[in-house]
Amino acid sequence: MTRRPNIPENIKLKLWVLSGGRCEFPGCNKYVWREGLTLKEDNFAHMAHIIAASSNGPRGNSLLSSEMAKDFDNLMLVCLDHSKLVDGSNSEGYSVEDLQKYKQAHENRIRIQTDLQPNVSTTVFRFIANIGERPVAIALKDTYQAILPRFPADDKGILMDYTNRPGRGEVNFWESFFDEIGAQVHRELAPGNDRPRPSHISVFALGPIPLLIKLGHAIGNIIPADLFQKHRDTEDWKWKPESNEPFEYTIHEIDGSDNKNIVLILSLSGKIHYEEVYKNFEGKPHIYEISIETPNPGFLNQQSQLKFFREVYRKLLSQIRNHHGPDIMIHLFPAIPAPIAVLCGREILPKSDPKVIVYDHEKMKGGFISLLTIN
């Protein structure tokens, strides 16, 4: 039996440092200096050879095995489970090329994150509430790729989880829900004895649109924030690369006899028809509509589209106030993706914007109903 060569201490140290002390197998990322259940600290790592140290080992090579046995580029730091996987009976499923890619990708990620300065850290802020009967979840690890080149300020972030909140169907369900969100946001963003106020937040939110608008309004625009979208095609949160394809939001205006009740329709994820809106009014309200060429749930995939919407929306709110006066009520009918809902709430200014009433479509009640009042 060929004796496994001793790896020099400087090579071991370099591997531990450049791997961040984490398993380099893709999707694992487990700390290998402590056991995950008991959290007891020890060496739970294995330094696996990409090309086996012996020509008879997994991925062994008669010419390269002895030459590469102590080479840093031929070593991966892995947890004990993935050591067994790549060097055991399943080793044929993992080629030299595969393992080299795994090692390079992991060490590049660790290098990028550790190169970053503290002023580009962010607090990951997750908000989840079931959409109808459909449960939702956002795993913390799924947010880390999306926030690059920022990195998480801590390993917990902020989680507002309302997926098991009782009371739906009760008379004051929505009102108490909105109050609860406002109070919790205030607690989460306030400085505490053991933590400062976040200097930047990254918001990942899924839930009914009125709740997300309330969330955005409660967060406000004092703390800088990035908003993220769950993409349907890739099931991840990372913004797609910017493209040169033309994109624009269009604004339609329809005069109405009622100039105190101003309707703002956001037809982005789907088309809201005017007949659905008119059911809520005795007269014909003045209508403004922000739309895109083909409203659809998957249109928002580039961060620039979100920034562009903010410009159009903020400008239109100011235009409505200037044209119709401060004493009007804006009735907001949204068909929008989650980050735009949060943005809509953030951009309603407490002191200068008119009162905004937010509607949501309730199929069981025959259409849109008013749920939330802001300002």
Distinctive features:
375 residues; alpha/beta; Cobalt-precorrin-4 Transmethylase, domain 1; Rossmann fold; 3 domains; 6-stranded mixed β-sheet; 5-stranded parallel β-sheet; 30% helix; 21% strand
Can you walk through the features of this model?
The protein has 375 residues and is of the alpha/beta class. It has 3 domains: 9-115, no CATH class; 118-228, Cobalt-precorrin-4 Transmethylase, domain 1, CATH 3.40.1010; 250-374, Rossmann fold (3-Layer(aba) Sandwich). It is 30% helix and 21% strand. The strands form 3 sheets. The protein has a 6-stranded mixed sheet. Strands 3, 4, 5, 6 and 7 form a 5-stranded parallel sheet that branches. Helix 6 (173-189) runs parallel beside helix 7, helix 7 (209-219) packs across helix 10 and helix 9 packs across helix 10 (338-346). The model has no long low-confidence stretch (mean pLDDT 92).
CATH topology (fold) name of the largest domain: Rossmann fold
> How does CATH name the architecture of the largest domain?
3-Layer(aba) Sandwich
What would you call the structural class? alpha/beta
Low-confidence runs: none
Number of strands: 13
N-to-C SSE string, H for helix and E for strand = HEHEHHEHEEHEHEEEHEHEHEE
Amount of helix: 25-40%
Shape: elongated
User: How is the main sheet built?
Assistant: 6 strands, mixed
CATH class of the largest domain: Alpha Beta
Number of helices: 10
What is Rg? 27 Å
